[in-house]
Amino acid sequence: MNKDNIKKNDPSSVDLPTTQPLTSNQGTTIADDFNTLKSGTRGPSLLEDFLFREKIFHFDHERIPERVVHARGAGAHGIFRLTDPIPQFSKADFLSQAGAETDVFVRFSTVVGSRGSTDLARDVRGFAIKFYTSEGIFDLVGNNIPVFFIQDAINFPDLVHAVKPEERNEIPQAASAHNTFWDFASLMPETAHMVMWLMSDRAIPRSYRMMQGFGVNTYKLYNAQGESFFVKFHLKPKLGVHSVVWDEAQKISGRNPDFHRQDLWEAIENGDFPEWELGVQILTDEQEQALDFDILDATKVIPEELIPIQYIGTLQLNRNPDNYFAETEQVAFHPGHVVPGIDFSDDPLLQGRLFSYLDTQLSRLGSSNFHELPINKPKNPTHNFRRDGAMRHDIPTEAANYNPHSAPGGCPYLSNLMSGGKGFDSVPAEMEGRKVRKRSETFGDHFSQTATFYNSQTEIGKKHIQDAFSFELGKVTREEIRSRYLGILSVVNKDLARIVADRLGLVVPDGLSKETVQTASQIFENYPALDKIKLGFTYPSLSMEYHCDFDTIKTRKIAAILSEGFDIQELKQMQSRIKAEGAVLDIISDRYGEIISATGEVVKVDYTLVTMDSVLYDALYVVGGDASQEKLATIKKAVCYVDDALKHNKAIAIGGNSNVMVLASDLRLVESDKAVVKIRTASDIEMFIQLVALHRNWQRELQNDLL
Q1: By CB count within 10 A, which of 46, 111, 207, 629 is most buried?
Q2: Is 143 a catalytic residue?
Q3: What is d(CA 541, CA 340) in angstroms, rounded to the nearest whole number?
Q4: Residue 53: predicted pLDDT
Q5: Are the CB atoms for 446 and 299 separated by under 8 Å?
Q6: Torsion over CA of 73, 76, 81 and 82, rounded to 10 degrees?
Q7: In this structure, are residues 620 and 646 in contact, taking their beta carbons and an 8 Å threshold?
Q8: Which of 372, 404, 422 is the endpoint of a domain?
Q9: Do strands 101-110 and 73-82 pair parallel, antiparallel, or not at all (unpaired)?
């Protein structure tokens, strides 16, 4: 194929700068497409910004009917229980009344893929909560990563266009490993921090039940005395934060693309209700000013070592939806759904979301009355003069449809006038500054926190980031994009850049490319010098291992593979202990039906080696019995069970005295592996349970080349 034709047809291959002016849909030339119009560089975005409104309006209506982003999801009902009220910070009833219980609906999702994509794509996970409070709906619309790709909402359409399947051929689905995403990321250095999180194991969680949640944006709380505070919302899973490995994720996508959705559904159906602790990071104005980064910048995280998280309650999911479409698909979240005691900061990403989410519900659900759908309807009564529109459900009985009125029955009152200040009121704030399309200089450091995140990872965490960059950039077909992003990595961490460059067969560039600097200079009037980057910090809380729970195997799934002639007594001992720990032990063989043990007793098979794969389990138990293991050693699929569990760093138990499965599999290569247990006594079973609780034996991967 002619290289000139490739360049001509590839929308990401246009040289910078172009010769054609950027215009609005009305033909108006645009001087700045990177910043919303604000009142001062750190002030709120202005409603009169017709260029932003046109851009985001068009983007919000591009796809019908599924969500443009977060299309694939799973949801559940539950309850939030407040254990430590914070009336000193917020007058919201559900945050200030001791013992308050609030109904919730939570929707988890992937961002990039369509409704038909896989759960195990390398992607950000949405974590959105609808609180049905006594004062109305509060929607906390967050992710499982605390930062975001961009600083200003005006760039959101470009980000999503770049990361979605390429426009020419709709390939690849649910993946960022392609030209257009990395072209965008290499030209927008503000994405570097989020990209580093995306390349970490956070992007391939073990389950929705084992991932953190973050509000991402900075909000404000205000109390009954009118005092206000900055706040970040956090959710910590009680099962700990765990992931799968990339090879495993790819195989799960083929074996069970609904892996996360099924995991959540089955856990709730089995009464293993997922739980998270809800926490808040609260800052005064003085604390905010003392930080060396801007908390209005959504690409920044506040390490909990700097501002501790105060955990105030427990979120539990305890009921599955009755109908996926009516509830999980029709649920409509909006960051603008807040209650008295919660308000917005001037974060320009949040400010744009306040417009975009409401608008997109009209496109998805077809009516301004989407709030009347049962899943979206508040639990407390509503009284207002919104009327008519398509699909109106409520039938108004009031005598008048305007405010104020003196018709019989009375007119709804303004709550602050009649109920002692209980209504919603925006936090008063001084506003000054010229109307500008300009980014605050305090948003200009894109790399200090990026480097801090990488430096804070454990050895295995760093290895997985190196592997992820190598895979993703290895899928990029344009060498100049690869080299351009290596320039960003060279600023963040020289060793990381060198490792990835060696694998790509490229030379590490000497800093940022001229194209990257050119784009940054368009956004920032004074793009900060790179020599001001702070590279020496580490915070343990930024690593996944800091948040792991290694005390339980509750809800974990363990595969027990066997064939005729297995050891029934050993199996019963293992079954008893696994059940007592709240985990699941599935019996797997080469066929369905009943399998006869060495002593003539039988067990019923749950799944076959063909219908359930090793990657769908957290650990493996090869049941003892010479005849059973000799038969399994001749079945290639059974040997693959062992090999996959081994290379995915899982705990493995080998029963009986036979060595045949060790010799038939890759176990012979790692006989000293501490996470491979030979079951001889009851204490060996206890050791196996402890190893399963550790989730993975990462030393195996660091010491062996099994993939």
Answers
A1: 629
A2: yes
A3: 32
A4: 87
A5: yes
A6: 20
A7: no
A8: 372
A9: antiparallel
Tokens of 556: 């974990």
- Residues making up the annotated binding site for heme are 67, 107, 156, 353, 357, 364
Q: What is the CATH number of the domain that holds 94?
A: 2.40.180.10
Domain boundary among 524, 546, 568: 546
- Which structure tokens are listed for 25? 């849909």
Name the token pair of 411: 């007119």
Q: At 254, which amino acid appears?
A: G
Cis peptide before 172 (omega within 30 of 0): yes
The DSSP 8-state label assigned to residue 614 in this structure reads G
Selecting among 35, 77, 143, 493, the annotated active-site residue is: 143
**Are both 453 and 481 inside the same structural domain?**
yes
Number of domains in the chain: 3
Q: How far is CA 207 from the centre of its chain?
A: 11
pLDDT (0 to 100) of residue 486: 98
- Same domain for 480 and 565? no
576 in a domain, yes or no? yes
Ordered alpha helix ranges (H), 110-240: 156-163, 179-187, 192-198
312 vs 492: CA distance, rounded Å = 36
Judge whether 454 and 196 are in contact, CB under 8 Å: yes
pLDDT by 10-residue block (mean), the chain, 707 residues = 45 58 76 88 89 83 79 97 98 92 98 96 98 94 98 96 94 96 98 98 98 98 95 97 97 97 98 98 96 97 97 98 95 93 96 90 86 91 82 84 82 63 80 88 94 97 98 98 98 97 97 94 83 84 91 95 97 98 97 97 97 97 97 97 96 94 92 90 96 95 84
Residue in the block written with tokens 């084992």? 210
> Which of the residues 35, 70, 260, 334 is marked catalytic?
70
Residues 414, 701: Cα–Cα separation, whole Å: 63
Q: How far is CA 646 from the centre of its chain?
A: 27
Distance CA 309, CA 37 (A): 33
Alpha carbons 366 and 657: distance in angstroms, whole number: 66
Q: How far apart are the first and last CA of the chain?
A: 34
Angle at which helix 626-633 crosses helix 636-647, to 10 degrees, equals 90
Sequence ranges of the binding site: 67, 107, 156, 353, 357, 364
